[in-house]
Amino acid sequence: MNIPTDTELMLQVRAGNLDQLGILFERHHKTLYNFFLRLTSSVTASEDLVQEVFFRMLKYHQTYRGDSEFTIWMFRIARNARADYFRKKSRDSDKHDEANDSLISTEKNPGEILEAEQDIQLVKTALAQIPEQDREVLLLSRFKNIKYKQIAEMLECQEGTVKARVHRALQKLKDAFFELSGDIANETR
Questions:
Q1: What is the mean pLDDT of the chain?
Q2: Where does residue 130 rank: exposed (0-12), middle (13-18), buried (19+ CB within 10 A)?
Q3: Are 32 and 23 in contact (CB under 8 A)?
Q4: Considering only 15-19, 58-62, 89-93, which range has the smallest mean pLDDT?
Q5: Residue 120 pLDDT grade (very low, low, confident, very high; cuts 50, 70, 90)
Q6: Do residues 139 and 37 make contact, with C-beta atoms less than 8 angstroms apart?
Q7: How far is 86 from 64, CA to CA, in rounded Å?
Q8: Three-state secondary structure string covering the chain
């Protein structure tokens, strides 16, 4: 049995077989949720945005052409949904929602776990401090492993521009992380 690709499923949705959108939801809702969560730091906003993306896919299913990867189309919708969401909502209302992070292995000793948790929190805090456009390219390239060429297509710019933006964003993230690390080290003295 051949498993249909995302593009094949979305083409079926475009042709009127709207039930196939459920399969796409199952495949991609966690990816979108994590993308939004890292971008917004808000559980509520992330959940709302995932629903909004799939609502828009349903609403605009006739506009899907299938000439590029489905995920590029999906992330374009996601970027637009996020921009619209924050135009309508105040940014600060849900900014500090906490999310469970399952990146820590329980096989480590308590000291290592605490240190890993602190590092994760520092990275999250540093990520939240860099400009949104920098955060976005980092999340797409590093956390979602989307190729520069695909990000360039999504952002409608040159691949070299994406590479430069990722490089600058990584530098900003590193600077913010080390600044926060230094602040914590100074506080513990």
A1: 81
A2: buried
A3: no
A4: 89-93
A5: confident
A6: no
A7: 25
A8: CCCCCHHHHHHHHHCCCCCHHHHHHHHHHHHHHHHHHHHHCCHHHHHHHHHHHHHHHHHCHHHCCCCCCHHHHHHHHHHHHHHHHHHHCCCCCCCCCCCCCCCCCCCCCHHHHHHHHHHHHHHHHHHHHCCHHHHHHHHHHHHCCCCHHHHHHHHCCCHHHHHHHHHHHHHHHHHHHHHHHHHHHHHCC
10 Å Cβ neighbour count for 97?
A: 15
12, part of any domain = yes
User: Token pair for residue 138?
Assistant: 């980092």
Decide if 12 contacts 20 (C-beta within 8 A).
yes
Asked if residue 182 and residue 125 are part of one domain, the reply reads yes
**Tokens describing residue 139:** 């999340």
Query: Tokens at residue 117, please?
Result: 């948790």
The number of domains in the chain is: 2
> Which structural domain, as residue segments, surrounds residue 182?
108-189
- Select from 50, 59, 58 the least CA-distant residue to 27: 50
> What CATH number did the domain enclosing 82 receive?
1.10.1740.10
Q: In this model, does residue 78 exceed pLDDT 90?
A: yes
Domain ends where: 62, 91, 120? Answer: 91
Q: Looking at the domain assignment, is residue 97 inside a domain?
A: no
